[in-house]
Structure formats: structure tokens, C-alpha cells
Specification:
Elements lengths: L23 E4 L6 H10 L4 H16 L21 E3 L12 H10 L1 H8 L2 E6 L2 E7 L1 H5 L3 E4 H7 L1 H7 L10 H9 L4 E5 L9 E6 L6 E2 L2 E6 L4 E9 L7 E3 L2 E6 L4 E9 L4 E3 L2 E6 L4 E8 L4 E4 L2 E4 L5 E10 L4 E10 L5 E10 L4 E10 L6 E11 L5 E10 L4 E10 L3 H9 L4 H17 L24
Parallel strand pairs: 3-7, 6-9, 7-10, 8-11, 9-12, 10-13, 11-14, 12-15, 13-16, 14-17, 15-18, 16-19, 17-20, 18-20, 19-21, 20-22, 21-23, 22-24, 23-25
Antiparallel strand pairs: 1-2, 3-4, 5-6
Helix pairs in contact: 1-2, 2-8, 6-7, 9-10
Family: Belongs to the iron-sulfur cluster assembly SufBD family.
InterPro entries: Fe-S_cluster_assembly_SufBD, SUF_FeS_clus_asmbl_SufB, SUF_FeS_clus_asmbl_SufBD_core, SUF_FeS_clus_asmbl_SufBD_sf, SufBD_N
Protein name: Iron-regulated ABC transporter membrane component SufB
Amino acid sequence: MEKKKTLVKDVDRTLYDIKNTNVDSYRVSKGLTKDIVAEISSMKDEPSWMLELRLDSLKTYHRLSMPEWGPSLHELDMDNLITYVRPNTSLKENWDEVPGDIKSTFERLGIPQAEREALAGVGAQYDSEVVYHHIKEEMIRQGVVYTDMEAAVKEYEPMIREHFMKLLPAKTHKFLALHGAVWSGGSFVYVPQGVDVKVPLQSYFRFNAPGAGQFEHTLIIVDKGAKLHFIEGCSAPKYNTVNLHAGAVELYVREGASLRYSTIENWSKNMMNLNSKMALVEKNANMEWVSGTFGSHITMLYPASVLNGEGAKTEFTGVSFAAEGQNLDTGTKVVHAAPYTSSIINSRSISKSGGVAVYRSAVSVLPQAHHVKSAVSCESLMLDSVSRSDTLPVMDIRNDEVDIGHEAKIGRISEEAIFYLMTRGLDEIEAKAMIVRGFVEPITKELPLEYAVEMNNLISMELEGSIG
């Protein structure tokens, strides 16, 4: 009797590959020019300083070279990419006023249901603009600000001007410069001092237009002693052309504050996901990253924490799943810039059917940062002989009074582990199924399953027989 092999199915994308046609009211020409950047700014009626920032970013973009490391980006052709697509609706605060075709997409993804049952506020972006934004009255009474970035630039201009692209300046790398030039959409959150937002806020970014880019900007300020959980969800249908996502996330976690930022990324396999995220963490503050990366053709994503105050802490928890046609280059960066700071990094990745999963991290301890603690654990599981997994940790330690640990594992399912479980009464099929599920369980239990409603459809594992 022929021995069957274990099957670990790809992400079931039936829900996410729904496409809408003719849902945009305007789009700029292909390419990236000064006129296009000025056109985007003019349509948004932005203050002059924002136009200057855009144009300066454009100059920086043309000056900087493409990354010389990581996955190849040769398929990306900016001359044939559309950088701004406006949907056929303005921003609505009443869900019933959102156009039916766009509304039905978000309803299938479960966003309205999640808002009713488990969220304090929701923002929904479609292509280049936010189409729906709402926050509960209780949050408003507490002084919490949650609005779209376009409105924030005008209504909270001094605060935005002080913080916008200060953690992630255009000169950081070419795609942040691109973002600075053509950004559109995104969310602004301000949590006042001492306020505990007990129910999460969520922004969901839906990409629909083929051959285009999405460049939302998220800016969150959690003031002294405040607490917030923010959830970011992303998805797009599959096309036979390259799409680009190059958003930016800037997080300010003030003294004694706490922020958890959870992301579920389920882009289609024609997407290049070149997102940038950074948090500035002050004295005795806590920053948590929870990241699930399941989609895209290529991802380069490394959320960063700068521990800038004594006693600051950060924790990164990540899981990625790379199948055929995917190169997921993910990880994190931590800069210990103050004494008595600590970081914990815990990452899991699975690759199958020729997929490539790379874990990349950088932990830096500056000379003034004594009594630092950092623990790094990254594990990768390859489900066949044609897939690839690498771990590339870098540690730059410039102070001797530190406690640093690192553990990395790459491998396949252990025959010894299978044998051990079989001696405890499990058959071979169940033993292997338990090992695969157990491998990702420490990470997936941290993902906001009860709030990120699309998560239940992201990864379906059906195991039958043996991996080999």
C-alpha cells in the first residue's frame, strides 16, 4: 500500500480574491514624477509643509539606490505603477452610506461584525483612501483621538507636523522615500495620559486596483501611563501584475505607557510588501509587536523598537508561512539606547512547496545601555526538500554589563519525536499533525484571533500520512 504524504495546504484565498471592478473615481497617471506628487497633494488640499515634505522625499527617492540585500525586486517597475487610486466614495462615518460594492467586500471580511462585537473603533481603507472611520462615544469622552490621516493633517496639524516621518525619515531607505512622496490614507491615534483603552482599535487595508500601490501612513501616540491595543489587517485579490505595498507605521510610546500592535498580513501573491514600522519607547514603557505574515510574493518587513528610556521593554512575536512563489524576509530590530532595558524576540516560520522564509534581526546595545537583557529565539520548519529557510541574526553589543541570549533552530520534523509520541499511543499521522500544530502554537496563541476576523481563514492545515 502506497504511503501517503502529509499535506499542509496553502492559505485558502477564496474569501480574499474577490475583485470589484469600476470602484475608483480617479487615478493618477503611471509612474513617479514631480507633477504626480503635486497632483496628489493638491487633491488633498494639504498645507504647504506637507507638499514640501513630499517633494523632498521624491528627490531623496531618486538619489537612493535599490536595496543590495534581501529578495530580488527586479520585477518592480515604477514607470508602470499607479501610485494613487481614489475609490468612488468619500469618507463615511455611517456604514450604511458606504457604496454597496465596497461595503460588501468588507462585510465578507467580517469588519462590521468585528466592530459591533469586539472593537472600540474601526478604520477601513480601500485602495488609496479611507472610506469608513468610526470610534465609539465612550472613547471620545475619554479624549481618545482616532481618525484618518488626511483629517489629522488639518485638524491636529501641530502634532502631526512634529511627529510625521520623524521616526522613519525619507533618507532611511528608498521605499520610505517613495512613501513620503506619495503616501495616502492611514490612521492617526492619540491616547491621552493615563487612559486605558480596554477594547482594541482596528484599521483594515483592502487593496483592489491591479498594477497600483498602497502607501498608507499610521501614526500612534500613546501618552504617559496610557494603554492601547491596535490591530492592523491587510488583504488583496490576486492579479497577474505586480502590486506594491509600502506603508509606514510610527509609534510613540511615552513614559510608563503600553502599546500592543498586532498585524495580520494576507496580501495576494502578486504583491510586493515593503512596509516600514518603528516605535520609540520611553522610560518604563512597554511595546509589543505581534506579527502574522501569510501573503505576498515578496515581503521585507522588520518592525523596529528604539528603547530610549531607562526600564523600557519590547517584545516581538512573529509567525510566517511561505509557500510556492513566496519569499518572506521578515524579522525585527531592537536598539537598546538606555540602561535597564529589555527585549524578547520569538519567531516561527514554515516553508513548503519551494517557498523561502528568512528570519532577519538586529539587536544593538549602545555604550550607555548597561544592565540590558535580551533573549532571541527563532525557529524554522521546512516541510519538504525544495523549500528554504534561513536565520540571519545580528548582535552589536557595545557594553559589557548585559545579559544576551540567542537560540536558532532550522529543520524538519524529527523522526525521534514521532517515535516518542507513537510510544504514547498516537498513530503516525496524529503524531506528525501534533508536531506541526505545536510548532506554531506558541506564536499563534498571541495573535488576536478574537478580533482579526479574517484570521480563521488564513491557514488551513490538513495532515495525512508522512512528511518526507
